[in-house]
Write a structure and sequence with these properties.
The chain is of the alpha/beta class and 401 residues long. 29% of the residues lie in helices and 21% in strands. The chain binds zinc ion.
Length: 401
């Protein structure tokens, strides 16, 4: 009987990879209620993992029922700017390498296999008088060289803190200009998050859809795919789901729209589940967008954020837990995709081997019909889960039994 071998799209034969992408974990505290004490909702990372920190809240409260869920943190390495420059709300913002305890905190996060630290600029941008005057970091650069110089400065700080250069990152505010993509490419990143695929209707109305939608809206499926850009084929990882998806049926607001949504709760709930189902049914990445903190030096709250969205996130994660998904960091997702696209599988009868093995290749998941055991080139026996084998990538012949 012929054993057809096929490389799985995602590791373990999962239908979709899942990751939480949390923006602006930073060495920042905004004393929003001006009482001189750090509270979890005011912290961005400044309180490290103490009990009153946002990080403690995330891990020990929000994600406690979901120990397998992984997080990619997007971290600005410099003095993170406030939203406005004339605020009377006290804010402490320091460099990521400002002291040994801070370096330890961030390095331990990055060394934990459940997490990774990714690049999110230096100061994140320049604040003005009003919140809408804020200019996002990559839009402040007036030349390619300026962008590259700043990235190079930021990457060295990141290396000092986490012990290696970051593999990827995200534009603050998903905002860029004509030099930006080239600056990413020429700075040695392997993946980058350029776009978020939500706020579609709102963004289109404002005619700013390029910032939020990766490509024309007609090609919905394409918008949610991992794509590539530049000569070096940097993997472009879209943000595909908002953590606050279910808030309209959860949060109590007094306006008319909110009352209507409450009345039609089941209808809206199903509609929101359908957004997740769309990603699952099409084997897209589920990259959940969140911010670490609701607090900034302005009366408005930062949204989405892990505090306001606690219940919505919990609902999303419980739903995903019941599906055959793969929890991974963005770098792990990018690496699997890179390996599975580059590697060539050669099969002859009940034997196969790989050609074109990338330098960073570690494991691959294969779907093999009518088989229970695969013996690797170094004579280890692997059994399947379902009909999926997750095998170490080695040179030499694999045997199907
Ligand atoms: Zn940000």
């Amino acid at each position: 009987m012929r054993n057809r071998v096929k490389i799985c799209k995602w590791k373990y034969g999962a239908i979709s990879p899942v990751v939480m992408g949390i923006d602006d974990l930073a060495n920042v505290w905004v004393d929003r209620n001006k009482n001189g004490k750090i509270e979890p909702e005011e912290d961005w990372g400044y309180a490290k993992n103490r009990k009153n920190s946002a990080f403690y809240y995330l891990i020990n409260k929000l994600l406690k029922p979901f120990p397998d869920v992984k997080v990619t943190f997007f971290v600005p390495v410099g003095i993170r700017s406030g939203l406005v420059n004339n605020s009377d709300i006290p804010m402490i913002s320091k460099m990521l390498n400002s002291d040994a305890a801070t370096i330890d905190f961030f390095r331990n996060i990055h060394n934990n296999p459940r997490f990774e630290i990714a690049y999110h600029g230096t100061d994140h941008g320049i604040a003005g008088k009003e919140r809408y005057d804020y200019i996002q970091e990559w839009q402040t650069f007036t030349s390619l060289q300026e962008a590259k110089d700043r990235i190079s400065y930021g990457k060295e700080i990141m290396k000092e803190v986490i012990g290696e250069y970051p593999k990827g990152g995200k534009y603050p505010g998903y905002a860029s200009n004509e030099f930006s993509d080239q600056s990413i490419e020429e700075s040695g990143f392997e993946w980058w998050s350029r776009y978020a695929n939500f706020h579609k209707n709102r963004a289109l109305k404002k005619n700013v859809y390029n910032r939020y939608i990766h490509g024309p809206i007609e090609s919905k499926s394409d918008n949610y795919s991992i794509k590539k850009f530049g000569k070096n084929s940097i993997y472009d990882i879209p943000t595909t789901l908002q953590g606050n998806l279910f808030n309209p049926i959860i949060l109590k607001k007094k306006n008319f729209k909110s009352k209507v949504i409450k009345l039609l709760k089941t209808h809206y709930e199903n509609r929101f589940y359908k957004e997740i189902d769309y990603l699952l049914n099409n084997n897209k990445i589920i990259n959940i967008f969140e911010h670490m903190s609701p607090s900034r030096n302005h009366i408005s709250l930062q949204e989405p954020n892990i505090f306001t969205d606690n219940k919505s996130l919990t609902k999303i994660l419980y739903y995903l837990e019941k599906k055959h998904v793969w929890n991974a960091t963005i770098s792990e997702i990018y690496m699997y995709k890179n390996i599975s696209e580059k590697m060539i599988l050669n099969q002859k009868n009940n034997k196969f081997h790989f050609d074109n093995i990338p330098y960073n290749a570690d494991e691959i998941s294969l779907q093999i019909e009518n088989s229970e055991i695969v013996i690797t080139p170094d004579n280890r026996r692997y059994s399947s889960k379902g009909n999926v084998f997750t095998l170490p990538i080695l040179r030499g012949m694999y045997r199907i039994c």
